[in-house]
Design a protein that fits this description.
By secondary structure, the protein is mostly helical. The chain is 43% helix and 0% strand. The structure holds iron/sulfur cluster.
């Protein structure tokens, strides 16, 4: 998948640290919500979220999703896949 979408990313002008909280609970929740707010005004949210899922990005907020949320999505997709 091409990564041209990155050129239109809303986070290009943000501090990258915002998108990599130390955790997903407690004080990190506020940071995650701030990152999500940027994602939700981003014109390439969908491409970013797909890229993070397909490339198993295990860290950070991508496409408005946290690492734990993407892990849950991958597990759900795997469980819904028919057996070979
Ligand atoms: S969806 Fe969020 S992380 Fe992805 S490019 Fe846009 S602002 Fe950056």
């Amino acid at each position: 998948m091409s990564q041209n979408w990155r050129e239109s990313a809303a986070c290009r002008t943000e501090d990258p640290e915002l998108f990599f909280p130390l955790g997903e609970d407690g004080p990190s929740r506020g940071q995650i919500e701030q990152a999500r707010a940027v994602c939700h005004r981003c014109p390439v949210l969908s491409a970013c979220a797909s890229w993070a899922l397909l490339n198993a990005e295990y860290d950070g907020v991508w496409g408005g999703t946290t690492a734990a949320e993407r892990r849950a999505l991958r597990l759900r997709a795997a469980s819904e896949r028919p057996d070979p």
